[in-house]
Design a protein that fits this description.
- Helices cover 38% and strands 22% of the residues.
- The chain is α+β, with helices and mostly antiparallel strands and 429 residues long.
- The longest helix has 31 residues, at 26-56.
- The model is unreliable at 57-92 and 134-140 (pLDDT under 50).
Amino acid sequence: MNKKQYQENRNALMNETQKLINEGKVEEANAKMDEVKALDEKWNNICEAQANMNALEGNQRGLSVQNLGGIQMDGAAAAVETITMTYGEKTENNKAEQLYASKEYEIAWAKSLMGTPLTADETNLVEMVNEYTHTTENTGIVIPKTVANGIWEMIEEMYPLWNDVQKTYVNGNYAAIVADTSTDAKWYDEDTATEDGTETFREFTLSGCELSRAITVSWKLREMSIEDFIPYIQRQLARKMGAALGYGASHGKGKPSANEFKPEPLGIVTALEKEASTPRIATYTSGALSYKDLTKARAKIKIGANELKIYANNQTIWNEMANILDVNGRPIFVPDPVNSGVYRILGMQIKEDDSMADGEILMSSPFVGYLANVNKDMSVMTEEHVKARKVDYCGYAIVDGGVTYMEAHSLLKYASLKEDEEEELGGGA
């Protein structure tokens, strides 16, 4: 199996998985995802065997940490270094996996970013890890597993909507066929022929949008200890890249028809607002959110209650949702007795998400109704500025996303002044 065959087989399996999810066949979809994992493991083993053979032939490309990308450790020359971070599940050689997640490798990686010379043992450690994690298309030093996990955990905590959407990891363009409409089955007697079903489909394509954010650090600040440097990089990347990913899943503009803006993932809120006549959007008056407003929004969704969640920012949760009372004066905003710190309304878990605007209450099943594809894994690039005595750490990724099933979402938001006036006159819905 070559790389092209692997990618074709994987894309086919992912398309089948998406179709099963759209049809509500969760068990079959999970089984198909197991096939994807098995295929990934098989391909990884092939790449590992090829790397070992190349090494035996003397063709294995070496890695010099002290001169990676032309970097001089004394800071006398400017250069660019690419460091690839694993995004998503990765199967590796057991020994390399242990080293990849080790504290020793984490320290060696941090020292390389800080411009600190590595010991011979650290150099060998970096070479060993990268020998098993790189394909022929990869360059640079792999970000330690512990550091990567820390970054993504921070992003997921701040932006749970991004965390909850379904994700794939297909290089290049991702294309799938999704159903728009479908007729239901009918009951028949033995003498009646089965009618032809009416199915309409559309092509769902994610071509990828570039995401980048630079963090500038002075040489003086870079002289901090390794124990301080690693959390600092984690926090900064999580905040900057996470904010963009959260925004993309909720309010991304999508692809421009002209040059009005740069390509972005199409966010759920944006898709709902673009829909003709906005059938899945309801409004309410600021400071007067009612039980009826919530049920009106809930009625617009055709997804089971167990799969639904509510996403809103801190202001909306505590100034609007937490103040709704039932007819007996008791709040309907109630804590989950099983999960400490979790609140629910109408049985739906409430998740605080900073990407939501004030007043927006998104009821959604992101895993069912939204798909994001990581076209290119996140990486960090460094660039030295000698005269300014500063260094840039630039996060970069190619990511795309879009709504696959509109009826998995509804939006409740503040009514405009015009809408309020229409309702007073009896013209509102």
